[in-house]
Every structure is written in C-alpha cells, then in structure tokens.
Amino acid sequence: MNLDIDIEKKVEKLLKKMTLEEKIGQMNQYNGSWDVTGPAPDGNNREKYDQLKSGMVGSMLNVVGANAVREAQKLAVENSRLGIPLIFGYDVIHGFQTIFPVPLGESASWDLEAIELSAKVAAKESSASGISWTFAPMVDINRDARWGRVMEGAGEDPYLGSKIAVARVNGFQGNDLSDGESIAACAKHFAAYGFAESGRDYNTADVGEHTLRNVILPPFKACIDAGVATVMNAFNEIGGIPATGNKYLQRDILKEEWGFDGFVISDWGSIGEMIAHGYSKDCMQASEQAVNAGSDMDMESYCYINSLKQLVEEGKVEESTIDDAVRRILRVKYKLGLFENPYLYCDLEREKTDVYSKENLEIARDVARKSIVLLKNEMDILPLKKSGKKIAVIGPLGNHKDAPLGSWRAKAIENSAVSLLEGIKNKVGEDVEVKYAQGCGLSQGKRNFLFEVDLIEEDKSGFAEAKKLAVESDVVIMALGEDCWQTGEGRSQTEIGLPGSQMDLLKEIHKINKNIVIVLMNGRPLTLNWEEENVPAIVETWQLGSEAGNAIADVLFGDYNPSGKLPVSFPRAVGQLPLYYNYKNTGRPDKHPEGMVFWSHFTDEENTPLYPFGYGLSYSKFDYSKPTISSNNMSMNGSVKISVEVSNKGAVDGAEVVQLYIRDLIGTITRPVKELKGFEKVQIKAGETKTVSFELKQEDLAFYGADGTFKAEEGDFEVFVGGNSRDVQKMTFSLK
Ligand code: NOJ
Predict the structure, then answer these.
(1) Is the pLDDT of residue 470 over 90?
(2) Is 176 a catalytic site residue?
C-alpha cells in the first residue's frame, strides 16, 4: 500500500461531509441506457437520471464519447450537493477504436513492450473520449478452450499471465493516473472465473486452495503489486460461495493480505445474482453479504442503492464498512484527477486527433504481426513470393472486414478491419494475380452480443467456384476459423474444430491443389489434426484487429518473420480438455510395462497437445547449444545461472522466445511437471549466435505448500531450456 498523504487528507475531509445516502450513492454504478445528450428520459431511466443529479450515483458504464460523458458528468457535478464527479467505465479490452489483437492473440507475441504499448494507445484513445476507467485486463487463467472468454485473457500459464497482466496495467495506467491520457485499470474476474466447469460460462468453479494460490491468484497479485486501481469480482461461485460474496477472497486475501487500496467493482448484476446462486434470499441479504465481503461498488444490480441504508440502520452493516468502500472509490477518483477537473477526459479536440489516428493504426499493425504464430511450414511454401504467381484466397474469412475486430471491440467501426484479401492486394500490387472465392458462409443472423451465432452448416453453394479457382492457382490461401462472435462472453462451445462447412471446403480444395496455406482466424485454440497432417502451412492469426489483413500479409510475404508462440496448448480433441502443459504427473504417468490399460491416458487419443504451450515457428532456424548451469547446488539465499547459446542458422533475421522451465521433483504438495519461470524474446540476425541467460532465485522456486506459506522447499529440481514447453533440454540442481 502506497498512499498519497495529500489525497488521503482530501478523502477524509470529503467523507466527513457526506451523509450516509451520499456515501451509498458512491457505491452505485449504472449503465448509461439512454442518450445522455438528449432530453431527460422517462420511466426507469428517469429515476437514474434524478439519482445522478442528487449524488446517488458514483459511476456510469457504457457512456462513451467526450460529449456524452461531459453531459452526464455535468448532471452529477452541477446538481448534487457535494458535486462529486462520476467515474466512467467501459470495456476497453483490446483497443478503443483502433483495434488491437484480441488479448489471447496479443499474448502470443510474448512481447511485453508491445503489449504495454497497445494498452497505452487504448488508454490514450479512450481517455480522449470520456473514459477514465477500463474493465481490463482480464487476468483469468484458463485451461479449457470451450470457454468463450479464453480470447480475453493471456492463456493458461500463471507466470506468463502475470507478466502480461502487469504490462497491460502499466500501459493503461501510465506513470501518473492524472495525466489525462492514462486510465484506471481493473484486474478481473476475482476469482476463478476461468475455471468454470466444462468451460461453460458463468458455471461453478471448484478449485482447491493450492490451485487457487499457485495458479489462479498470481496474475491478480502481480496486478496489485503493479498498483492496479480496481478489481472486478466474478459471476462464479468458488468453494460454494459466490465470488461476489466471498470474504476470504476480497477482504482476507485482496485487501488484508495484499494491501490492495483501490476498490472492488461487482460484475454486472453479480450482487443480485447471488439470489439465483442460492446464497442470498433477496437483494437485502445479497447486499449485506457482498458489502461485508468487500465488494465496494454495485454494477447494475440496484441492490446497494435500495438496501444499504436500511442495513446500516439495522446494524447489519457497519457504517465503517461503508466508509471503507467510499474511501477507496474517492481515492481512485482523486488519483484520476477528476476532482480537479471532472471534464479532464472529455476533450473534443483530442477526441478528433487521438482516436483512430494513423499513428495508432501503425502500432496496431506492428502488434498484430508480432502476435501471429506459424504453426506449420513445410516444403518452404512460406514466405510467398511477391511476383509471378497466381494466388487464390478462399474461405469465409478471406474478405471479412468485421470478424478480425473480435467481440470486445469497444468503439470499433463495424467492418473496418483490413481484410486478408485487401492486405494481400496492398502487398503485392499488380505483379501477382490474386483472386477470391468465399467458398462457404461463416455465420448468419444478427452478429452481436444479443444473439447466438448461427453457423451456416450446409452452405456449399460456393464450393464449385472455389474449386475452379483452386485449379487455376499456384497457391491457395485458405482463410478459415471462427466468427468473432463465437468467442467472448456467453460463447462457450462443446466443439472446437473448424465450424460449419469449412472442413468440407478445405478437404475439397485439398483434393485439387495441395499448395495450401491455412490462415486461421479464431479466438480460442482449435482442434486441427487433419489440417496438421495434410496441409503444408498453417498460420494462426487469431483476431488481429483493425490492421489484420496488412499484418497477415506482412508475414505471408516475409516482410515480417513470424515470432509468436502459443500462450495456450492446442488440443488434439475437445475431450482432452482441460489441457495444459503444467499438469501434474499422477501416480500412473507412464505406459503400463505389460501393455495393460492401467495408466493415466485416453484409449482413443494421445495425452499430449497437438501444439504445445510456447510453440511457434519462424522463417529462421534456431539452434540451441547445450545449456549450462552455474552450479548443481543452490543455497536458499543464492541463485543459479542458466545460459544457452541460440544460433540463427536460417537465411533471414528473426526473433526467438527462449523459454526456461523448472520442475520441483518432490514437494509438500505435488508440483507440476513443468513451470515456466523465465523467457526472453531475442532478435537474432541470420548467421548470428546470441547467449541468453536466466537467473533462478529462491522466489522463483517458491510456491504455496502444505502449510499455506509461500516458500521454496529444499530438494532436487530439473531445469529446462528450449523454444517451447515440449522441445527442451534438461539439467538438474539441488536447493539446500
Ligand atoms: C460482464 C463481464 O463479465 C465483465 O467482464 C464486463 O466488464 C462487464 N460485463 C461490463 O460490461
């Protein structure tokens, strides 16, 4: 906790002036569901409107635009007794209007500077447009690709996830929250939302203390240490208690143990949802449980505003609990400079110049190409030549200008992404003949949050045209994958292969022309067994945002050498899920010596992923020397240094993510077979060799063990170095 004395004094002074009602008002957040720039609304919204004017609202979400925010802010500041400014929140998840790769894709860059920069640009744009608070980053670890929100996080690993979480917080919040171009970040969803059973969104999470502490919480803790201003709790229950009403999580761990001084916002309606969970009998009880558990602000469940006063009067909630929540909220508002200038984030001029600028789009293109992962490249099919060839682009995503924008697209302009076809044409000009056939449809019906995506299953109407084009072409780029509305909130699936008729289309084209490069666009790991077996090149491009097509063309034609690595394992079959590289060994890890079935496996599929965590190819070829370790013994206060030489044996310059994993062989609780503990993305010129070194210290080996404390345990360790979690070289040392 690092409090600013000056701000604390101001907070206390203001708090003393506030009535109980005004305090409760600060804990109330409403959705902006009417045109704030228009006349006063009717009905339900009229009540909200009046409450805004009387200081009964502390925050609004989804009111966006310098003008709209100014109007709403005016209502609060100019009419309420104390003129306390509102804080305006919005889901700026991967860009505001300039759209960056979906967070999972961006995480594949393993490039912390690029990730920080993308958050910084998003903050710059949104802060010009009224927004001072984003509900990001989502730092939920997830091991199950069926979960639609896997696209919104950094994947399956707590170490990588923590580094990326911090980069995002730093990018959003900058060095000074009141500089006008930075916004408050929000680590979400606290906690275990990514562990929803079977990947079904909002489902129960049932994890033990050890998984909670060692896997789920580290990215949150990293955000707190980085000074994140807010935390959002979660929809799920954990251990039988909804996260929103969970005192152990919010008060004991977050606020007491970690010293978090910002505030906790509920997820949308999650206080009221504790009734459906079967934890609260009504809003009154839900409010009591949530506030006492440490939820400071109520997003849209209307519970706090309608019950906290009575709860305080009845002695069920201490006024000091309310004061604590309000203090936290006011603190963030002061830090954002909102008291000094409530309109700091409503700069009409800056909104014109800073949003969707050429400069921001260029940054988005660079981050996008860094996020691309080359999964397969045989017969040197890639990179493609910029002249003399006939290129076919086939598939429902080939000329899609909307799907690359992803489902958390903030203020993106619909259909504004550079499509793959456009990107290729921009790249090759007139020298190459590029033709497009859609082949089959992607999805139909309305594509947004309100409706299920309706896949076009039987649509084969375009096959004939696509086949004809494939016959005439030298290379076929198949643009396949998911509609962006297949991932995101409420978008869980039981199948994760290529949807609709796409697989059939691919097989038909493959019969005609084997020179296929699959360009995948998707928000979750997909099962790609047939593709891996039959197609020479596969390029994972996720949903890359505004500059998608240009970024992909940069990679396809070798202007950018792919350097991304998977932040999640790609399964062979949906039945393997949850699947993750840092699994436990079990008591029966190995094939039975007499060939019997009694070992931990599937009888119809391998245990291993198709593409492991950390995997990704390059147009360069990186050779690893035998790594060295400074000593085979490490004392508790000492360290070991691990070094490896990485040579670029290819013909082009490239970047490699060198990865370091450990295994703690025996623990008071069992330890994973591998745990990432370091990585470095190094640029290595063709023919050059670079030495990469890592240092392991006590804290790198520490975990929450059987006695609940975070410490390293003496014993033997394995340490692995390599370019992905599977292909590694092993060494050993002992901690004494
Ligand atoms: C619900 C989502 O779970 C959360 O992540 C988001 O920030 C809120 N809705 C607000 O849109």
Answers:
(1) yes
(2) no
